[in-house]
Amino acid sequence: MTPLFSISGTVIKGSQLGRKLGYPTANLDLPDASRFYHLTGVYAATVVLEEEIYPGMANIGFRPTLDQLSFTVEVNIFDFNKDIYGQEITIRFLERIRDEIRFTSMEELVTQMAKDETEIRKILSLALKPNTDSQ
Ligand SMILES: Cc1cc2nc3c(=O)[nH]c(=O)nc-3n(C[C@H](O)[C@H](O)[C@H](O)COP(=O)(O)O)c2cc1C
């Protein structure tokens, strides 16, 4: 599956809230973040890290549910719990599944992220099957 676009950067510490929510994310250090404002949304993604490829779900946006708005490009890598702060990664954005939403509680956000995970795992299991990639 050809990515829609890719973004590379160094992983920095986010607010560490994701960990508490059950969805830790790798946040990219982006000196010129405004370049990516128009790409806001939630995506099925893969992550290239040290020549390995991992499946995950990514968010580009302002995180309107949080008290403090801050623009981030971040990815939750599935079934992964290594500390990769300071490492260089490339996020490949494969399919956009929805807009960012302002939820009225963190519980609603977590419920939605669980639905995103189910949907994106399905998308990726189809997209990443061996030999189904178009040449
Ligand atoms: C797949 C995915 C979907 C997300 N969707 C939303 C959303 O719709 N609205 C929102 O405010 N934040 C959304 N977020 C951002 C979360 O609020 C954020 O990951 C969380 O607050 C943890 O941030 P931290 O990594 O800085 O700790 C999403 C994040 C991911 C990974």
Walkthrough of the structure:
This protein has a single domain (5-127), classed as Riboflavin kinase-like (Elongation Factor Tu (Ef-tu), domain 3), CATH 2.40.30. The protein is globular. The chain contains two helices and six strands. The chain has helices at 17-21, 106-127; strands at residues 5-12, 26-29, 41-49, 52-61, 72-77, 88-98. A six-stranded antiparallel β-barrel has the order 1-2-5-4-3-6. The longest helix has 22 residues, at 106-127. Helices cover 20% and strands 36% of the residues. It is α+β, with helices and mostly antiparallel strands and 135 residues long. Residues 14-18, 21, 23, 25, 27, 42, 57, 59, 63-66, 74, 76, 100-101, 109, 113, 116 line the site of flavin mononucleotide (FMN).
Describe the protein's topology.
Elements: E1 5-12, H1 17-21, E2 26-29, E3 41-49, E4 52-61, E5 72-77, E6 88-98, H2 106-127
Antiparallel strand pairs: 1-2, 1-6, 2-5, 3-4, 3-6, 4-5
The structure holds flavin mononucleotide.
Structural class: alpha+beta
Indicate the percent of residues in helices. Answer: 10-25%
User: What order do the SSEs take from the amino end to the carboxyl end, as H and E?
Assistant: EHEEEEEH
Strand content: 35-45%
The CATH homologous superfamily corresponds to Riboflavin kinase-like
Strand order of the largest sheet: 1-2-5-4-3-6
CATH class bucket: Mainly Beta
Distance between the termini: 9 Å
Q: How many separate structural domains?
A: 1
CATH T-level topology: Elongation Factor Tu (Ef-tu), domain 3
Structural shape: globular
What would CATH call the architecture?
A: Beta Barrel
Radius of gyration: 14 Å
Mean pLDDT across residues: 93
Which regions have little confidence, pLDDT < 50, spanning 5+ residues? none
Largest sheet, strands/sense/barrel: 6 strands, antiparallel, barrel
Which kinds of small molecule does this entry bind, naming each only once?
Answer: flavin mononucleotide
